[in-house]
Hints:
338 residues, single chain, Rossmann fold, 9 helices, alpha/beta, seven-stranded parallel sheet
Amino acid sequence: MCSEKRVVTPCSSHLRSLFSPKMPTLPLLVGGAAVAAGLLLYSRRTRVPKTVVITGGCGNLGIKLATHLLGLGYQVILLEHPKYIFLERVPKGATVVPADLELVGAWTHVLRGADTLVHFSAVNPYPNANWAESAGSMSHTFNVFLAAARMGVRRVLFASSNHVMGGYKDLADVKTVSPRSPPMVGTLLRDLSDRAKSGDAVAYAAAKLAGEQLARALAATTGGATTFIALRIGWCQPGVNLPSTLNPAGTPPQFQNAVSGGGSAPAASDQAVDENWFKNMWLSNGDFLRCFTAAIGARVPPGELLLLNAMSNNSGMKWSIAETEAALGVQVQDNSRA
């Protein structure tokens, strides 16, 4: 597969060929009605597929979504930092554009003519991100959203996080967490060993909340030319993403902080509370693809940010997904307890 991929730079000639295909000469048709019919038939047969640009396109979520959208007939462009371009992972048919999203550069021209931007990119996409990394992630989001609005992208989808609401984990009196609930950033793990491995998610979640707020402001000022949806996604692990591999630390083992020293044994009751929370945050691969695909064409109220929870239909969870299913016209199908 690697030999079939090209890493391309966003040069103007490439973009012109990408977004402005030449129309071949039509045979001469007699009569106005025949000409109109011929043009309609040509349009149906040669309609250019919608272009979706995915930031962080070579990461876990980017590759999964790109593969799915290519199968549906979309044209897919992946924006990725040169350090993280792994061509052997890129699905056939996708175009890869090297881009450092912390800087405003030539990559912005890739957005011209695009229908949808999906923003996954972050300096550290896990809850153990420190403040410096989260500041970099904010720069990614700010640069991308402003460029999308400037280039007239129709729809922007932002992968926010349930960690924006992680403060509700230990609030027993709160039975439902909806998109309208006040933010409570960070997820403080009860087990100190797991907290050392995964961090408290405060800086990570603050970057996501900042992205939501910018999307809200831009939605109110673009006159509907660019619409924004933020999906507070749950835990969608790399690869097959089975509920059985979720852990009470809330982070895949390969991305956890290294912790030295034995320390005291974790309390089973504390780990059980944390593990229960993360099982309820699970977002299956199928439900992830269903939500993001539906969000490309979903109706967004004029001038508003459409903010939704995105996790699977996990038994016993606090997360409200009624708003998600109603707005996107989908039904999440999987359950971490099944």
